[in-house]
Amino acid sequence: MNSYFFENYKKLKYPKLNNKTNGLRNAQLGAIHSISSFFTLNKTKAAVIVMPTGSGKTAVLMMTPYALEANKVLVITSSKLVRSQVSGEYSTLKTLTKINVLNKNIKKPKVFEMKSLYKENHYNKIENSDVIVATPQVGLSLSRVENIRKKFDLVLIDEAHHVPAKTWTEILENINKAKHVLFTATPFRMDNKTIKGVFVYNYPLSQAYKDGIFGEIQYIPIPNEPNKDYLIAKKAESIFLLDRKKGYEHFLMVRASSRNRAIELQELYSSETILNLQRVDSSMSSKTVDKIIDTLREKKLDGIICVDMLGEGFDFPNLKIAAIHDPHKSLGNTLQFIGRFARTNTENIDIAKFIAMNDEELVIENKALYKSDAIWQDIIIDLSENKINKEEIERKYIGDYSIDKNEQIDPDLNLSLHTIRPNCHAKLYKVTGFNIHGTFPEICNIAYGPFLNEEDNTIVAIGKGYEKPKWYAGNLIKNEENHLYIIHYQKETRILYIYSQVKSECVYEQIVESFSSNFDKIPKHEIHRVLGNLKEFEIFNSGMQNRFNESGESYRISAGSDVSQAIDPSTGRLYSAGHVFCKAVQEEQRITIGYSSGSKIWSSSYANLKDFVSWCDLNGAKIFNSEMVVKTNTNFDFLPIPKKLEKYPQNIYFADLSGESYANPPIVYDNTESTLGIITDLKIRIINIKNDMITIQASIEEKEQSLICDINGNYQSVNEEILIYEGRQKISLSSYLSSYPLILRTTDDIMIQGNEISVGNPEAIVFTSDNITTIPWKEKYDTNVSIEFRTSKTRKKGKSIQDTLREVLFENAELDYIIYDHSSGEIADFITIQSKETEFEITLYHVKAMSAKNYNSSIGDVYEVAGQATKSIIWLKNKSTFLNKIRSRRKTSHCEFIRGDYETFLKDMKLKDKVFRGKIVMVQPSICKSKAIPYKIQEVLAATNYYITNSGKVKTFEIWGS
After folding, report:
1. Is the omega angle on the peptide bond into residue 422 within 30 degrees of 0, that is, cis?
2. How many domains does the chain have?
3. 688 and 633, same domain (yes or no)
4. Neighbouring residues of 393: CB distance < 8 A, sequence distance ≥ 6
């Protein structure tokens, strides 16, 4: 037996509307033919029909079962009110017969308006009906019954922008063998979830305006004053009365944001206006609401007060005045609301008027819609079409992704790339030999994908991660996590962008190694260009690297509304720019953008996949543009930006770990996985300097390792003796230093890190011998200055420098505590604490033996101890840092108190009324004040004094020589 719609298909007509007869509008003709055409080739995909509110999509929805010769149809509507309207339309075919699509005497379909959740007594009604109309929850209950859902071969969704919501989605998934047609005026959602389906017809709002379907609209602003509700109400009353005098049958809707607000406004309009209004809200029964709506349609009211109950699907074209006391915040809801008033399908109506408070701070899709001079006719059309066109472009873009036929997809995952919304964040590399068909490293544990877009050089994949809960100390329980990975290669700039939720240097490097043959990080002077072509900067988070004290306050972070105000020219002489995060204006739109020296860029915004790739490309084009000039016009411009390192200067005398290494020092192992200490225990020496490379020796305990750093800041080592525990992986020291490069300093105020060089103020470095103190090593103390400390081998060679220094320190009765700490990872060889009236003076003594026969003749005697002295500034950063280091050294049986005791020392240091002051002494007998000091040694001594005294943590630097 053939179905009702099959039998009546031949009776369906397609008359065109003209001046003489009723018929279908252009939008309706285009939509119904697009649906018919689409399902000649597609049986399972969903068709999405985009038609503006008021363009007649209800008629298209009713025609669809006839055009597709459906057997049984399920119609899902957004509300009970619309459910009742659609049921009535199908039962009477009033609209289709009025526009001559069907004859008036045609047999009507059997319609079941399903008002409650599915029960067994519904079965016969469903079996005997051609059309079942239900709201989402009712439709869901029906779709879960297997022998019922199989009966439907067509599902029609009204207001389809609700479809991604869980209920709607499950209905479509349950009835997945049927054809799906989704109707909407706004195919986008606030939650950015996708409406799954193919856009088969999009009737633009501008065309609806040209065709006279979408009428004239006008925004009437009210001054932003405390009594705005009263002003809006009185203006609404005035416009209503004036329009009625002009002969227009206009009615008013008062829009509130909540039931309580609606009650409040009802009292206001009742007491301050003569308008006859009634309130409609969700607390009322359906019967009460229907009665009020009927009274409105009978034109016995002047209007209604409501929240959102009469939004979608409500058809009363005489609603022409909107008093917007509480505006919608989303574009979709705003367009739906405006569409109710822009209808033109009735007589005696004029333009639609919207009365609302002037609020330039309320921005919808980057448009100040409620600005006093806003022209809604143009703005609304542009907003709608731009948003819909963007949605269509993104769908096409997502369609360009494909998955390798050998990859396995979990059918239960049901994940669409259209639903991916990464936060804008990427690690950048300059690469050669990009291979889009590379394989993700095992550490990513890819479980879904990868998806490839070969046209756009983009890869998307999802990996599984397993983390032990923080509350659990065992190994049995682990939480499963899904980690998103996006790789994009910008061919023009050769920049590879990596988005990874696991922000580990180890993961980043393994990924870039898997997809390229060679790579380098983007230097700071290039990545700084992402701030180009922006204006109206507000810098609310920035980092400044101390060019003199990488190991003390190596990095100063400031946060606030505009932290640049705290920067002045003197700050620029002490610091260079680190990371920055700011607000700015880009092409009249407010954005956020940030970058770090770790070759990362980020924003606080989230984006769909296409927009994320566009965001990467936009910033990459800036980075690639060597002519780009960055000017923030804030005090941030005082901070110097590093330049590219072209060759290593020969006067590098000191190398130390980066600020990141000191902030989060990882554990150090040998290649047998025995723990050696932490990375700050490493001793680092410069062995050789060439134009294009520098050789460095790192040592800890008995382990030594030589490393070569090239001109690009990449470290390599032949034998990896030292390993670093970084993240969850053990990596080589060379890999670690390539990610966190050492800081190299010259004697003329140049700082080098990675492949960047920062030039300071060499004129400020001036040698003086005033800080050199003469110690009578041989004359008074009979010291063998070639012996640094006594061992079993040197015991018979006389008194060591350390022996003498101990004696000298004990001669000073004002010293409250004397600590001996000579060993690997030391604070200094000796530490003294003197408690003064207003301060604690902490002095660190660094000792080095004299290797040369003559005074002032060996630069090597000076280099190492000068480096140790500069590096030790970190321990004088503050009282807490100093005490924590003492405690950790004590745990390993170091920091021997040779005057005073440890417990008393701790009690004394807790006194809060005393300032913490630092002092560093370099003990080197080879330096003689009374003899001529060669220029090379002067350079090192002057630079050491300059760096230490400019650190802000050490008030005095002294040299104890001969």
Report:
1. no
2. 6
3. no
4. 610
